[in-house]
Design a protein that fits this description.
The structure is a single chain. This protein is mainly alpha-helical and 298 residues long. It has two domains: 101 residues; 167 residues, no CATH class. It is built from twelve helices and no strands. Helix 2 packs across helix 8. It is globular.
Length: 298
């Protein structure tokens, strides 16, 4: 079963608070203990914040604007406090992907040395953020204790508007990328794609096989868009950061290779996006509501 999913026959009023309690508990546990892998815990916590923000968007109309803004801001700010502790890891992973298809002579040793040094700096920075992490753990413990406030009525109207909004914004993101596949547009679209993926994961018991399929396609799309964004960021560094530009022709070769691969990723993302967002939001949500009623035996 999906990590962030209702249980079979579980109600929204029981399931949504449970999901928050469990995910926050896993995040907290990742930071505790002498043998804790802090770098992995940072990664997992950032992912958890994104998943919980998707859940909040799903039940947004049911919990009301004030509760939504407070909780969404809390998880957004928590993720931001950790956002600078993974950048070099991501960039090094992109370089690994690029170099995997290249002969030794065509690789980028000077760029790799820069990134590996920045990864080491990031790992040291995680240790230096112990006070921030302690505050986050305490705040997450408090949020767990108050998860019951997210109990919503067990009816489709509790999630209909939230699901429709997420789908509609993803559809708008597709249109924006068709018109202008910029770094900013691709990044915004990817966020909407991931929110929809997480929300369908929560609702997986409505039709497990169908939801698993849709989630898989949305995950693929978000990975393509994420890789394109990460390549664009590394491309920007290799163009503008003096430490990278000092690599001269090597940096120029990397920029060209990243641009080529990024263009391919964006081009292959659009047809998949068109299939996933082929219908108006109301039509999509009507289908999901049919699955809800079928599950409820109505």
């Amino acid at each position: 079963m999906a990590r962030l999913a209702l249980k079979r026959k579980e109600s929204l009023s029981t399931g949504i608070p449970r999901l928050f309690e469990e995910q926050l508990g896993r995040a907290v546990d990742g930071f505790r203990g002498n043998d804790a892998d802090l770098e992995e815990a940072v990664h997992r916590t950032r992912a958890t914040c994104k998943e919980l923000r998707a859940a909040l968007r799903l039940v947004r109309p049911a919990i009301g604007p004030h509760a939504y803004r407070a909780a969404n801001g809390f998880y957004r700010d928590a993720a931001r406090q950790l956002s600078d502790l993974r950048d070099a890891h991501v960039q090094l992973a992109i370089l690994d992907t690029v170099e995997a298809d290249l002969e030794e002579a065509a690789r980028f040793p000077r760029i790799r040395a820069i990134l590996e040094e920045r990864v080491r700096n990031e790992e040291e920075a995680v240790a230096d953020k112990s006070a921030v992490i302690s505050e986050l753990v305490e705040a997450f413990d408090g949020a767990r204790a108050n998860a019951s406030v997210l109990a919503v009525p067990n009816k489709f109207s509790s999630i209909r508007a939230g699901l429709a909004r997420t789908y509609a914004r993803g559809r708008a993101g597709l249109r924006a990328c068709v018109k202008d596949p910029s770094l900013e547009n691709a990044h915004e679209w990817r966020k909407r794609v991931k929110y929809l993926r997480y929300q369908l994961g929560i609702l997986r018991p409505l039709w497990p096989a169908m939801m698993k399929c849709l989630q898989g396609e949305l995950k693929l799309l978000s990975e393509w868009l994420g890789d394109a964004r990460d390549m664009a960021l590394l491309e920007r560094l290799a163009t503008e950061d003096s430490e990278y530009t000092a690599a001269g022709a090597e940096a120029e070769r990397l920029v060209a290779e990243l641009a080529r691969r990024r263009t391919v990723l964006l081009k292959q993302s659009l047809p998949l996006g068109r299939r996933l967002y082929a219908e108006p939001a109301d039509d999509f949500v009507d289908r999901v509501e049919t699955w809800w009623r079928t599950r409820k035996g109505k």
